[in-house]
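Thread: Newbie trying to understand structure tokens

Hi all, I'm a second-year student working on a class project, and my supervisor (Dr. K.) asked me to get a predicted structure for one chain before our next meeting. I've only ever worked with sequences, so writing a 3D structure as a token string is new to me. If someone could post the tokens and maybe explain what I'm looking at, I'd be very grateful. Here's the chain:
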Amino acid sequence: MRTRTRVAVIGAAVALLVLEPTTAIAQDVTQCVEWSPRGYCVEWDVPTPGTPGTPGGSGGGPAPECYWVNLSDDLGADDPTIYADFGLERPPEGVDVVWQSWECADGRTTFNFRWVIAATPGTLASIARGRLVGELPQPVVETSPAAGTASIIGVPAFVAVVNWTGVVTETECAGGLCVTVTATPQLTFRPGEPGAPTVQCAGAGTRFTPSAGTPESQASSPGACTWTYASRTGANGRPSAWPGQASVSWSISWTATTGAFGSLASVTRSTDVPRPVAEVQTVIEGGATP
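---
Reply by user tm_fold:
Sure, no problem. This is what the structure looks like when written as tokens:
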């Protein structure tokens, strides 16, 4: 099993410029680590590169306290050019974010924004799934007989995936919440011969091992990834190879540290396994089969 963990990324802040104050809504308590007596969030648990410096105080007095405060507006939706205008990174596709402004306790609001990923199980699960899906490989298939070599009618053919991942997990955290997404693989083999069913394979499939017994005995094992062809190819209008295919389908689920859980869309990767099939003729002499 392969596991990775990642903390949510947030957009960078933009250049400091003092403007008139704007309206802000109450801070998200799931992302605030420490509160100021004045009602501002002193420390968020998701750091942002380039946090603005605190403006100097007037008249030689102490500098006012300044904090990131949630905004009621979705700045990216209201003005999509804000990313290009201020050099902000775009949030991940389909992920909910909260916009914040840098505001000061003396009433001044700076024209300085950032976005943070909304700490909800669904949002974090989507991020972790996107990263996990990008790492799921196309199956590399090994067969016996080897690719390009014809199978023999009545003799089992074997299929295995050499880059099998097993169960894979990704974890995403933000705002004191973590969600783990788990992808569980299932290998199937479609022989391609007319009338052949889809074979449900155990694990990474089945490699034929000459020292482990006959092909027939190994093919009889529960979950064996094999098929015994009954029709030759390349004759009577048939193709030169049956269009076999091996597919790995990952079912995807998630669990959150809050106890919530759910499932997400599965992912399937397939590799063609064309299979020529030949027939071996046996000569019978004297009424007996040698």
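A couple of things are worth pointing out once you decode it. The chain has a mean pLDDT of 79. The chain has two domains: 8-118, 124-278. Feel free to ask follow-ups in this thread.
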